[in-house]
Amino acid sequence: MLSGGLSDSAKPLDIARWHAWNNFGACRNLKFFGGRFWKEWLFPDGKRRDYMDGHKAVCLDEHIRPVSGNCLVYSFGVKDNWSFEDALIEYGCEVYGFDPTIEEPEQTGERRFIFHKIGLQAKDKVNTKGWHMKSLRSIMTLLGHGNRIIDVIKMDIEQSEYEAAPNMIDSGVTAQIKQIALETHNFLMSRQDSQNYRFKYQQIYKLEKHGFIRFSSQAGMGSDRLNEIANISDFFIYEMAWYNPKFYFV
């Protein structure tokens, strides 16, 4: 198993293989929720491409699946695409959306998620852009969810995942999380950035070292490969998902 054998000194080629390892066999009933097709989306390299974004994998196997009518979802990174949130509301979950970059999503229709203009990070602070950032533990306490189980946490937070994910482990809040669906970002790195590439991998790999089991990993639809890093290349976006085995194996 690729993920199980990686060390903190893993080489770039090992990391690229780790990203690509989907481990679909870990979930027998996998479903993608949400997704929106963008026409000629402007990418960080200045090029325009057709792109599918916002689709997240959720495992619907017994014990780990969200139970319709009794499930809680936190979604970090809403902006102008809340197809995932709509899909989980229709499924039957109580959904909270978070994004410090917008005032309020222009939701229409009967299905609505509860929105908070808050961003997810390792520490509670107001950043240089004036955005209010909080740790997951602080957000759960603020909303009165300190003792609740979160069925799915979605993170599409433009590289803040590399601070937020380790903090979730260090704070112990992962014991209350069933599933994590996370979009990783390796924007515009080059051969000279192999150290940064390794650092980012290490922060997300901590989830697996902590026991979370990956059940899906896909290169972002429309994602180009990075410039070569130490003579290898990797996609700059991955959609990855894990579950907490303490809920799965009961």
From TrEMBL:
<feature type="domain" description="Methyltransferase">
    <location>
        <begin position="52"/>
        <end position="223"/>
    </location>
</feature>
<dbReference type="Pfam" id="PF13383">
    <property type="entry name" value="Methyltransf_22"/>
</dbReference>
<protein>
    <recommendedName>
        <fullName>Methyltransferase domain-containing protein</fullName>
    </recommendedName>
</protein>
<dbReference type="InterPro" id="IPR026913">
    <property type="entry name" value="METTL24"/>
</dbReference>
<dbReference type="InterPro" id="IPR025714">
    <property type="entry name" value="Methyltranfer_dom"/>
</dbReference>
